[in-house]
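Appendix B. Raw example, untouched.
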Amino acid sequence: MDAEAAFDFFVTTYGVKYRKAVTKLTKDCDVLLAFYDFPAEHWKHIRTTNLIESTFATVRHRTGKTKGCLSRKTGLTMAFKLMMSPQTKWRKLDGTNPIPEIIEGIAFKDGIKQLQTAA
């Protein structure tokens, strides 16, 4: 079952009971399902923003605790070092092979590359 068919099944199943929620989801269906227009290998990277949030949370907490930075330069240096330190634990992107295809505009449907047929 593809994403659109699953979405339609959800709408018919829960549309009567949860009318307002289904109406909002239906209104933004294109944006909601745009996730599936990318290769399946990239889905786990698209799905999360934890990498960005955790990096900035560290800076925010540390700068809040050290209110007395001696100067603007020392404050910026501390923030820079705090942002650079977590990169050693970052996971490399999976599925980097399809990136040139995405840039070229090759279509993906449900995470699978769509081959164009000659007319």
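End of appendix B.
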